[in-house]
Amino acid sequence: MKKYLNCPICNEQSFTTHLNCKDYTVSGKEFSISKCDSCGFKFTNPIPQENEIGKYYESEEYISHSNTSKTIIDKLYQAVRKYTIKKKYNLVKKNATAILDVGSGTGEFLSFCKHKGLITKGIEPSDSARNFSIKNYKLDISEEKELDHLEEKSFDVITMWHVLEHVYHLNKRIEQIKRLLKEKGTIVIAVPNCSSYDAGKYQKYWAAYDLPRHLYHFTPNDIKLLMNKHGLKVETILPMHFDSYYVSMLSEKYKNGKGNIFKGFWSGLISNIKATGKNTYSSQIYIIKKQ
Ligand SMILES: [Zn+2]
User: Fold this and answer.
1) For position 252, what pLDDT does the model report?
2) Which of 30, 39, 56, 87 has the most CB within a 10 Å radius?
3) Do the Cβ atoms of 277 and 235 come closer than 8 Å?
């Protein structure tokens, strides 16, 4: 395990334990979340070594990197994904010719962009997901180390859909994508929001903590601090309305041992209503530019 000595955002050295949470999807082990006493940022601490994290993704139930539809929740997730791909494309298409998707997974989003005429490039660390997207969609996808070899200022849009919370070397990754972004380009980052209603309601059972795969647990303020630190600025925050339902349903399952679609749906709805106008949605999209 690797223990943080400094806060990944503000570099201060004093933390308190925020929560202890179980890994419900793969290992069943318990992990801790530290909260920085200075800036308030929450991060998983300690974390598995980088060469050991792979085994925490090895699960039939971990569906982010596969396409198997099994449970009702998984099926719902797949159906919503089809719809959201189109919404995501509509968000990025303005003034865009070249797009880089970091953490491109099985490639559905990039494939959609490619069919709409964009020049597409993907980065995906998982061998199986990367190979799937190359074989099935004929996409140009590389391993993470390729980020340092791509030409600087070559992309109008760089997207990271629910990826930044998984990335080792957080600050290095922000610098890498900043180098690749054109001067007037846009970075689009989607991450869960641990200051949402559903996070507060479910506490250690909140499915979007997803320890130890999620290394960071961002609030909107954390994202702003992190971006400012790297000479970037958050221009707009947008909701991801479906995530509150999905996350609440999974959280119900973790809390009570079985899924309760009605309770999960209800909690997701309340979360969305309470977040209206306040940017406290369960997951949010941050539109980021260079300062
Ligand atoms: Zn801090």
Assistant:
1) 94
2) 56
3) no
DSSP 8-state code for residue 64 = G
| Residue 284 Cα to ligand 1 middle (Å) | 21
pLDDT confidence of residue 60: 58
Ligand 1 geometric centre to CA of 25 (Å): 29
The single-letter code of the amino acid at 263 is K
Task: Find the 14 Cα to ligand 1 centroid distance in Å.
Answer: 8
Strands ordered across the beta sheet of 15-22: 15-22, 30-36, 42-44, 216-217
* CATH entry, 15-290, from 3.30.70.20, 3.40.50.2300, 3.40.50.150, 3.40.50.2020: 3.40.50.150
E-assigned strands of the chain? 15-22, 30-36, 42-44, 98-102, 119-123, 141-142, 155-161, 181-192, 216-217, 232-239, 283-290
Q: What local confidence, expressed as pLDDT, does residue 74 receive?
A: 74
Mean local confidence (pLDDT), 265-274: 95
Query: Residues near 35 by Cβ (< 8 Å), separated by ≥ 6?
Result: 15, 16, 17, 18, 41, 42
- CA 15 – ligand 1 centroid, Å: 8
Exposed (0-12), middle (13-18) or buried (19+): which is 269, by Cβ within 10 Å? middle
In tens, the pLDDT along 161-198 reads: 999 999 999 999 999 999 999 999 999 999 999 999 99
Q: Residue 100: beta bridge partners?
A: 121, 158
**Nearest partner of 222 among 155, 272, 174, judged by Cα:** 174
Q: What is residue 199's DSSP assignment?
A: H
Segment 9-18 shows an average pLDDT of 97
